[in-house]
Amino acid sequence: MNELIKITEEFVKNQLKGDSSGHDWHHIDRVRKNAQLIWRKEQQGDWFIIEMAALLHDIPDDKLNESEAAGWEKLDSFLQSIELDRDTASKIKSCISTVSFKGGRQLELNSIEAEIVQDADRLDALGAIGIARTFAFGGKKGHLIYEPNFSIRGEMTLEEYRNGNSSSVHHFYEKLLRLKDRMNTAHAKQLAEERHRFMEVFLEQFYSEWNGTA
């Protein structure tokens, strides 16, 4: 198992090297560390499935591939190359398929492993790291830092979420500030509280400086 983890680490590092949108190897490694924190507290789930899903969760992401189909083909090809049994590969892919926020969709998770990986990924979208990643991704996509005339969008289709008018600050309201109440596990909910409050304090300071009242 350790050898498979090492092979997977190298594959992911190679695939995501040079990424400047907040989805680089360091993001992946933080998600794995978050998952381990949660798993140790919850004392449930198969750690190998969790670790592999955490490492591979961004490989099929449509943001990082020509298409979602191309991303899943890449993931399938890798899993076949390391000769995982079909059941294990299926469990890993099932976790990965439910990780992404994608405009606020809420999918029913069918395993504790999926809950832990989703929570771990969402924790990395909160707090100081979440703030840094938001502006990195916004800059990469050509989004404005803030545009007061934009409206905060509610539930969206994937197309609207990916390509509609928004700003990096609006992203806090359209995604980040909604994550705290969507955590699955008890420990992730505790961790999310502090990170959520940090973002609220940041936004208070941001508006104060934006409006010239700081």
Automatic annotation (TrEMBL):
Gene3D superfamilies reported in the protein's UniProt record: 1.20.58.1910, HD-domain/PDEase-like (1.10.472.50)
Domain of life: Bacteria
The HD/PDEase domain, residue ranges: 20-135
Protein name, as recorded: HD/PDEase domain-containing protein
Organism expressing this protein natively: Mesobacillus stamsii
